[in-house]
Amino acid sequence: MKPTRRIFVAGLTGAGLWAAAPGLASAQSRTSPDGQGWYRAGINAEDYIFHTGSQGIGRRGQRMSDADELRSRVFQDSLAFPPPEGLDAVSIRSKPAARPGGMGTLSRTLPARRFLGKRVRLSANIHTERAGRVQMWMKVTGAHDRVLAFDDMQSRPLRGTTRWRRYSIVLNVPANAVEISYGFLLAGSGAAFANDFALNVTPGTTPVTGQP
Amino acid sequence: MLEEDEADARLQALYRSVSREMPSAAVDMAILGAAQNKIRRDRAAPFFAIAAGLLVAVLVVRDINLPTPGAAPEETRDYLMALHTPVSGDPAESGR
Questions:
Q1: Residues of chain A neighbouring B77 (CB-CB closer than 8 A)
Q2: Does residue B15 sit within a domain?
Q3: Given pLDDT bands bounded at 50, 70 and 90, which one contains residue A80?
Q4: Which string of DSSP letters, residue by residue, matches chain A?
Q5: What is the ipTM score, two decimals?
Q6: How many folded domains does chain B comprise?
Q7: Is the pTM of this model over 0.95?
């Protein structure tokens, strides 16, 4: 290829990428506000501060130095309890003037097709500091958002200050399931930290934690 | 006989004197007791004040550290059941 032609092709490629960039960015913001797939929600959610790993950091295969950087950024005031190894770090903190009766949650949703007819375990490392109530949760929905299976650790919430520990939720994913949503929440004041969320198929002998 | 009468008169005078002095002595004892109690109270007052102050401080600190109550578990559950967020994540990329 002649040098002038190479320059022409490179210019065309660059112009194409430049033109496509805004579209890619807007598509990203439509599907995931933080680039990690976490959505922020809750009751009086504006009373809570949410931290999630930024796009491109915390993904599988990242170097550990990136994970360390992520942990130090998300878990900045949790140095008394160093987090275990793991990516996908998130935290929820209440603001000093948080009103009573509030709740902040981070939520992720994914298609259920890979898990149809299987038993699924959601697990993550969680640590709490002076927290009112912290719960991990998972929901399996069918057509028209009909809830097919649900567990929010309502019978086993975390309160106060707790050390890092791995928690699990196990649910059946029926054949008619459409989506699986999961996340964790902080109700009231305090702070909650989590990392290393994982969703795995588990043997049928593993007890189910939620309903049905 | 005269001596017996004189002795009897002296004894009666002594009885009268004692009977007059008794109430006075009782009042003196009561006043003295009250004064002693007041002194005890005055001595103990700073300690009571310090104890009360410490109690108030503990209650204030506890109140500051008390977590603000959050949404009720049932309210949270209802919220999550109704919550719908767009499909955004692939579990294969979200940790191990």
A1: 152, 154
A2: yes
A3: low
A4: --HHHHHHHHHHHHHHHHHHHHHHHHHHHHH-TTSSS-EEEEETGGGEEEEEPPTTSSSTT--HHHHHHHHHHHTTT-TTSPPPS-S--EEEEE-TTPPTTBEEEEEEEEESGGGTTEEEEEEEEEEEEEEEEEEEEEEEE-GGG-EEEEE--TTS-EEEEEEEEEEEEEEEE-TT--EEEEEEEEESSSEEEEEEEEEEEE-TTSPP-SB-
A5: 0.74
A6: 1
A7: no
